Amino acid sequence: MLQTASTTAGLISERRTIPSDTAGVELQLINRRPDSVKEFTTERTLVMMHGATFPSASLFDVPVEGESFMDALAHAGYDVWAVDARGYGGSTRPPEMSLPPKEGAPLTSARTAVRDLRAAIDFVLRHRDITRVNLLGMSWGGSVAGAFTAELGEKIAKLILVAPLWLSRTKLRIDPGGALNTYRVVSPKTFETGWRVAAPEQKRQALIPEGWFEAWEQVTLATDPGAPTAGTIRAPAGAVQDVRNHWTADNPLYDPAVIRNPVLLIAAEWDIDVPLEMAQDLFVRLTSADYKRLIEIGEGTHMVLMERNRRQAFDAVIRFLDERFEPSS
């Protein structure tokens, strides 16, 4: 169901909900595209999957310096879609998220998010009458995108993974230890401290240009008007359970060796949540990819898409998508 639509600066913006594979669970899709485009193609269509804590609008659609990541992709000629998994952003939140967080089965695992991503991709394929899409996943969304492509690579043209979760021999910051609740309550202001601390002390202030954090915080808080406490959002805890079940347990969610698509990995120099060595390990395991590329963005953290060097990541994604590619036989 189309909820909102507008045209600004030559771009069409739409938000809609679509059915998931579960009765009563709707998924939000954000779409941004050039208003001049009337015919749609696989090569110019991109679907994006968010990370463990923040939904698509927060990670991909905060306009600073005149445009968001989605805007930049659309200005480059792409029909861009971002999906919220259940429990995130504008998608249906499980009933448990209307109650105070309590110990219990964590909601929205990566396996569940793979199903939601499939619903979104299948909708885009039908809606645009195309046979494949390009796919981008960030952080935990990279796990989801990787697992989807390993299983259903015929639906994907190119795969882009930004700071994707992968195997770790050490504890990850997202997992505080102890019993898990069904969902987490996250304060963007508190998150800012952990965001900046990943950079060297003398670089922390300049990491996020003036006014950018405030813009990001405003968009982020608006994604969850029903949060139990002012200045917070709710995030399902399934991603933390995934860390325990897979990424710190030497139990990969998927086998990179079965992915045949072209793959771009983007890492950041100061990322302490998904350090470069994790991306490098994933990269070498992509043994069947038609071609692959690993790019490290200097002076960036796990949130590189919202930092002063974000354009380097934007440009790397657009160049990769723009490249002509003929699949091997």
TrEMBL record:
<protein>
    <submittedName>
        <fullName>Lysophospholipase</fullName>
    </submittedName>
</protein>
<dbReference type="InterPro" id="IPR050266">
    <property type="entry name" value="AB_hydrolase_sf"/>
</dbReference>
<dbReference type="InterPro" id="IPR029058">
    <property type="entry name" value="AB_hydrolase_fold"/>
</dbReference>
<feature type="domain" description="Serine aminopeptidase S33">
    <location>
        <begin position="68"/>
        <end position="308"/>
    </location>
</feature>
<dbReference type="InterPro" id="IPR022742">
    <property type="entry name" value="Hydrolase_4"/>
</dbReference>
<dbReference type="Pfam" id="PF12146">
    <property type="entry name" value="Hydrolase_4"/>
</dbReference>
